[in-house]
Design brief:
10-stranded antiparallel sheet, Rossmann fold, Catalase HpII,  Chain A, domain 1, binds CIS-heme D hydroxychlorin gamma-spirolactone, 6-stranded parallel sheet, single chain, alpha/beta, 18 strands
Length: 695
């Protein structure tokens, strides 16, 4: 019988071609794709199998035979299915994309993908939480990882960043301490994916360099609405190097097209139960429905000679360069437009490393970055089972790989050569380095920097100011953002058992801002610190989430519909919202259809926390449904837009809302759809006074 060799076809995307599937990386991945359709069951050795439901036994009720190779293979393979999860950032989700630079940056860097605007560079991004285990919930108070692999023609470049621009520690030697403090406590492995416990806050109070980071962590930045709606930061100061060898300091920023938007804490707690995959699902569904996640890559450039111009050290990863001091320059755009085919093969096995750089991008002496350059490859040798994990399809560069590295577990290349050393004469001197061949074009050359000094184990005094930028962050927050930060401190410290730790945290806060320290002190029932530092009064408006880009596109709206809903009134409103890209789910007391609309969710199986807004289109009958009333109250509490069409007045009355900010009622007439869409686009209505309103 002829060998069955199923053709490799790319998955279709809403019936059409998948965007971004025709690039070097996708073509490379295609070679490894295995299709199931039309295939026959075989062992790993390719031997076809008659039956996989019954093991080989002596008689129908007798013992199982050791010679059953299929049974043994199946059990053995299952026993070894799991690999270690990442020691941090274990929980993540990823997507393929493409990057294109707007105009040549040759003045600053010789990285080809940043110099040629016609080049489309394939990328893969993995978003993650940091502290939680692989199966933990997405919506927790935590930093989010934002790691990008650029498959450039000059090799892989990894920008392994976070959604916060600063880190809790300055020197990588402290990473183990920090991670041990934030992870579940060693005696009982509690709590999961939380910083609200004694060891984390003990670390904070012992290590004041954490304070700027802690302000970010207590802010809404730690609760992103969507991976598509959060910023990314390279954190460190890196270095661009141009063809002439001239260096320029650079900070990288990803800026989401949809703006930076967050959930609120009370909502986060409820999303965890309703949908632990909230952020993962959001990214997946957006891409599946043809709504790519788009980010602009921006840089802050600092000439080499300005290294000491700032009142902080550029090598200190607990500091930002305020955008008002060095404005962002948008240099290109990344579009994440394709979901992985297989989570394990791609998202789990991808291996990022800060040391993966290409010509034109180099490191600085930031001691955190230097430590990272060691750690990533090292950890992956354990996690991915040896040094050949670079050969896993998702990790392979599209640039050719030739060197004298050999063997190791799972080597899948068959090197056809009599030599594995350099220099050699037997293989014609190949593979040839730039120096050996005299061809230096396109080779990586480290930035030449003069360094001399004594061997010391000491932190630079220029890293010594731990509070000024924490204060800058606090000063830059809008009133509602400050409110959220104070509440976050109260929640977190409220879970700390040791009183002295809480009090010492407040002493640290007194160096950030007296009002902040006093508000938190009041909440935990202690007197405010008498010794407070003077607030320098400076702010950086770019740090606030106030005034972010607004759009109704891809916003999820729950439409509460009853059997007596006026379909003629609802239909044009739904159409108008969908035309603007909103995703409207019809939620009704029962599945099937309600008032001629197909029901997407039965109300008790939906929850307001899974939506950005709620549109009331139901009649009297919904008033009797406690879930429907709860839906409206909760949406109000969380600042979400509420629309009410004619006939929904009883439901609105039953919710007994304490205000009408962001509540659009039928009195808006023909302009209803427009007004409601605008209210949704605002994201949240912070002008509501909800502190005393129970949801
Ligand atoms: Fe790290 C993973 C981001 C400091 C050691 N880190 C990891 C990931 C992200 C970051 C996004 C997940 C990558 C993925 O999705 O696979 N890490 C950061 C940022 C840092 C940082 C922005 C500071 C600016 N990291 C840092 C230090 C060390 C590490 C100082 C060690 C000295 N990080 C690791 C690691 C991980 C990792 C242990 C775990 C899994 C992995 O690397 O592949 O090597």
């Amino acid at each position: 019988m002829a060998r069955y060799d199923p053709p490799v076809t790319r998955p279709s995307h809403r019936g059409g071609p998948v965007p971004g599937d025709d690039n070097d990386k996708q073509r490379q991945l295609d070679r490894y794709v295995v299709k199931q359709d039309g295939t026959r069951y075989s062992t790993d050795q390719g031997v076809r199998i008659d039956d996989t439901d019954n093991s080989l036994s002596v008689g129908e009720r007798g013992p199982t035979l050791l010679e059953d190779f299929h049974f043994r293979e199946k059990v053995t393979r299952f026993d070894h299915e799991r690999i270690p999860e990442r020691v941090v950032h274990a929980r993540g989700s990823g997507a393929h994309g493409e990057f294109q630079v707007y105009e040549s940056l040759a003045e600053f860097t010789c990285a080809e993908f940043l110099c040629d605007p016609s080049l489309v560079t394939p990328t893969f991004v993995r978003f993650s939480t940091v502290a939680g285990e692989r199966g933990s919930a997405d919506t927790v108070r935590d930093v989010r990882g934002f790691a990008t692999k650029f498959y450039t023609r000059q090799g892989n470049y990894d920008l392994v960043g976070n959604n916060m621009p600063v880190f809790p520690i300055q020197d990588g030697i402290k990473f183990l301490d920090f991670v041990h403090a934030v992870k579940p406590e060693p005696h009982n492995q509690i709590p999961q994916a939380q910083s609200a416990h004694d060891t984390f806050w003990d670390f904070v109070q012992m290590q004041p360099e954490t304070m700027h980071f802690v302000m970010w962590l207590m802010s809404d930045r730690a609760l992103p609405r969507s991976y598509r709606m959060m910023q990314g930061f390279g954190v460190h100061t890196f270095r661009f190097v141009n063809a002439q060898g001239k260096g320029t300091f650079v900070k990288f920023h990803w800026r989401p097209k949809l703006g930076t938007h967050s959930l609120v804490w009370d909502e986060v707690l409820r999303v965890q139960g309703n949908d632990p995959d909230f952020n993962r699902r959001d990214l997946w569904e957006a891409i599946e429905s043809g709504n790519p996640a788009e980010f602009e890559l921006c840089v802050q450039l600092v000439p080499q000679e300005d290294e000491h111009r700032f009142d902080f050290d550029l090598l200190d990863a607990t500091k930002i360069i305020p955008e008002e001091e060095v404005p962002l320059r948008a240099i290109g755009k990344m579009t994440l437009n394709r979901n992985p085919r297989n989570f394990f093969a791609e998202t789990e096995q991808i291996a990022f490393c800060t040391a993966n750089v290409v010509p034109g991008i180099d490191f600085t002496n930031d001691p955190l970055l230097q430590a990272r350059n060691f750690s990533y490859l090292d950890t992956q040798i354990t996690r991915l089972g040896g040094p050949n994990h670079q050969r896993i399809p998702i990790n392979q560069p599209v640039a050719p790989v030739h060197n004298d590295q050999r063997d190791g577990f799972h080597q899948d290349m068959i090197h056809d050569s009599r030599t594995a050393y350099s220099k050699n004469s037997i293989s014609g001197g190949c593979p040839a380095t730039g120096v050996n061949s005299g061809q230096m074009a396109g080779v990586f050359r480290h930035y030449q920097e003069h360094v001399s000094g004594e061997k010391i184990r000491r932190r630079s005094p220029s890293f010594g100011d731990h509070y000024s930028q924490a204060t800058l962050f606090w000063n830059s927050m809008a009133g509602w953002e400050k409110e959220h930060i104070v509440n976050a401190f109260l929640f977190e410290l409220g879970h700390v058992e040791r009183r002295y730790i809480k009090e010492r945290v407040i002493e640290r806060l007194a160096n950030v801002d007296a009002e902040l320290a006093a508000r938190v002190a009041e909440g935990i029932g202690t007197s405010p610190p008498t010794q407070t530092a003077a607030n320098h009064g400076r702010s950086s408006p770019a740090l606030s989430q106030e005034g972010q880009p607004q759009s109704v596109a891809t916003r999820k709206i729950a439409v509460l519909v009853g059997d007596r809903t006026d379909a003629a009134a609802l239909r044009p409103v739904l159409q108008a919202l969908r035309d603007e890209g909103a995703i409207c789910d019809v939620a009704a007391p029962h599945e099937g259809t309600a008032a001629s609309f197909p029901v997407d969710k039965q109300i008790s199986a939906a929850s307001s926390v899974l939506y950005d807004a709620v549109l009331l289109a139901g009649g009297q009958e919904l008033t009797a449904d406690g879930y429907a009333v709860q839906f409206v109250r909760e949406a109000f509490k969380h600042g979400k837009a509420i629309g009410s069409l004619p006939g929904s007045e009883p439901l609105l009355d039953a919710a007994n809302l304490p205000g009408d900010q962001g509540v659009v009622t039928a009195s808006a007439g023909d302009a209803f759809a427009r007004e409601f869409a605008d209210a949704v686009a605002v994201h949240r209505h912070w002008d509501r006074d909800v502190a005393s309103f129970p949801a």
